[in-house]
Write a structure and sequence with these properties.
Oligomer: single chain
Strand content: 15-25%
Helix content: 25-40%
Radius of gyration: 22 Å
Distance between the termini: 43 Å
Shape: globular
Mean pLDDT: 88
Low-confidence stretches: none
Number of strands: 15
Strand order of the largest sheet: 10-9-8-7-6-5-11-12-15
Number of helices: 14
Largest sheet: 9 strands, mixed
Order of helices and strands: EEHEEEHEHEHEHHEHEHHHHEEEEEHHH
Structural class: alpha/beta
């Protein structure tokens, strides 16, 4: 029988009391907040803790990809300074259980920063887990070896298409060397002392969709660990016309309980016999909301908030997510939406751990966790939804009512 002293309880005031033994077991630190949520199976208790920081080492890139959001805004783009990165590193939580991951990515190509490897080495020396998101065009056998030797935990290479023409149209570069980059990374990951996961990320459009089976085959051939396929972020009307999620966007944040008909189905093999069934289930999609294959967990779910993540720009600005790092435009439902950046702090002005625990930022995360916002995507939009300043439910700035990431349409890298 378990010791009752390790079990949470409710005091006379109705407050949940977490015993010290249980708090120690889940690794709470001074200043951490426990988040208690009602779920279908009971009560879920999590720790609102900073776990991952997306670090934009540079705002510059060696490519000009057609779908890159950098083409949709005007602004300066430089390299993160040593001082800025040092402040970021020094401001991380001291002993967070499970550690804090630094994911070098953002909207520039990290590997063109002249001090990129020094930044990785500094993060690893400080005991931080490191990930890299790269376009792969600068990868060499030496760099792959250095990343493996430094103990980088994961490298994601962007390859938008399984055929040369499809990739070239998206990236303006040749695809072969980038696929070879994945192979080099996998080879050095195999030789390295640590476990470096290597995968592929792809942006799905009407133009490259037919080539994606070939991309999956290439991933299998080079023994990639994972493939992530995301819808495009429609920063312009042209990009919106190339997206493959128009209907899915319209119904994405409808409450699952409002769908008709509701369909529950057990998992089954996908083969020649079951393919007609799957096609029959999907055929009505243009007419009715899609059947619920799950309980709707992918609706109104912000991974940045729920998994403890923030983004830091090359000049040290801290935002709750990558989408709120810069002012930009998104073309949704046949209209332009102005998304204003939301800065919650600067790493050179105060430790990131304190920025995370700021009362205003905590209130924002609590609001997003509830996601009690207007269903603008399924509504079709109005004048209020032309910006992220608010919505018709009274959600304050920044309103995440039409966030494509929170509806599972665009995947967090």
């Amino acid at each position: 029988m378990a010791d009752d002293r390790s079990r949470p309880g409710v005091d006379a005031s109705g407050r949940i009391v977490v015993p010290s033994a249980l708090a120690a077991h889940i690794g709470t630190l001074d200043g951490d907040e426990l988040v208690v949520e009602a779920v279908p199976d009971g009560v879920l208790v999590t720790v609102d803790r900073l776990r991952k920081v997306y670090v934009e080492a540079t705002g510059q890139c060696n490519l000009r990809c057609t779908m890159c959001p950098r083409q949709a805004w005007a602004g300066s783009a430089g390299h993160m300074t040593d001082r800025c990165f040092g402040a970021l590193l020094a401001g991380l939580p001291d002993a967070a259980p499970g550690g804090v991951t630094l994911a070098f990515g953002g909207f520039g190509e990290p590997t063109i920063h002249p001090g990129f490897l020094d930044m990785v080495a500094g993060a690893r020396h400080a005991g931080r887990r490191v990930e890299l998101i790269t376009n792969g065009t600068t990868m060499s056998a030496l760099l792959a070896q250095q990343l493996a030797e430094l103990g980088v935990a994961q490298v994601t290479v962007s390859i938008d298409g399984g055929e040369d023409d499809a990739y070239r149209a998206m990236r303006g570069a040749e695809r072969g060397p980038v696929v070879e980059a994945v192979a080099m990374l996998r080879e050095h990951a195999r030789r390295g002392a640590g476990r470096m996961s290597v995968g592929i990320a792809c942006v799905l459009t009407r133009q490259n969709a037919a080539s994606l089976p070939a991309l999956v085959e290439a991933a299998m051939r080079v023994r990639a660990d994972f493939v992530s396929i995301s819808n495009i972020v429609p920063h312009t009307r042209a990009l919106a016309e190339s997206a493959l999620c128009e209907h899915a966007t319209q119904v994405s944040n409808m409450r699952p309980e409002s769908w008709r008909p509701r369909l529950s189905i057990g998992r089954f093999d996908l083969n020649g016999r079951t393919r007609p069934l799957l096609e029959a289930l999907l055929k009505p999609l243009p007419v009715i909301p899609p059947p619920a294959f799950d309980r709707g967990e992918w609706h109104n779910h912000c991974r940045f908030v729920r998994e403890g993540m923030v983004a830091v720009s090359w000049d040290g600005r801290v935002a709750p997510c990558l989408s709120l790092l810069y002012d930009h435009t998104e073309h949704l439902g046949g209209r332009d939406k102005t998304v204003r950046a939301f800065e919650v702090g600067r790493v050179e002005s105060g430790p990131l751990r304190d920025i995370w625990r700021d009362a205003g930022f905590r209130a924002f995360r609590a609001q997003v966790r509830k996601f009690d916002t207007s269903p603008c995507l399924s509504c079709g939009g109005c004048d209020i939804s032309e910006t992220n300043e608010g919505d018709c439910f009274g959600t304050p700035f920044p309103a995440c009512s039409e966030c494509l990431w929170a509806q599972g349409l665009v995947l967090c890298p």
